[in-house]
Design a protein that fits this description.
Helix content: over 70%
Shape: rod-shaped
Low-confidence stretches: none
Structural class: mainly alpha
Distance between the termini: 11 Å
Number of helices: 3
Mean pLDDT: 81
Length: 89
């Protein structure tokens, strides 16, 4: 694998992971309950949003990036074991 392709793929996977994590978090019943999706906005708790949202974004970025990096490392290691590495030419 080429280094540029691996790096670009990791960035794309992390961005998609962050967007997907925020979307899933926002669509959950628990989040809707905290945002006041009831009669006359009873039960609004924006403190939960301020605490949870940054954590959701961080996990959405880091977890897919780690999985992508682990996969790239495993594939690169296999290629090195066979005697051919595209990273070093």
């Amino acid at each position: 694998m080429k280094r540029d392709a691996v790096t670009c793929g990791g960035c794309v996977v992390s961005a998609v992971g962050a967007v997907g994590a925020v979307w899933l978090w926002g669509a959950s019943d628990r989040t809707q309950r905290h945002l006041g999706n009831k009669f006359e906005n009873n039960g609004q708790d924006f403190g939960a949003v301020l605490v949870e949202l940054p954590l959701v974004v961080i996990v959405g970025v880091v977890l897919p990036g780690l999985v992508w990096g682990l996969g790239a490392w495993v594939l690169t290691r296999r290629e090195r074991g066979r005697g051919r590495s595209e990273v070093h030419g």
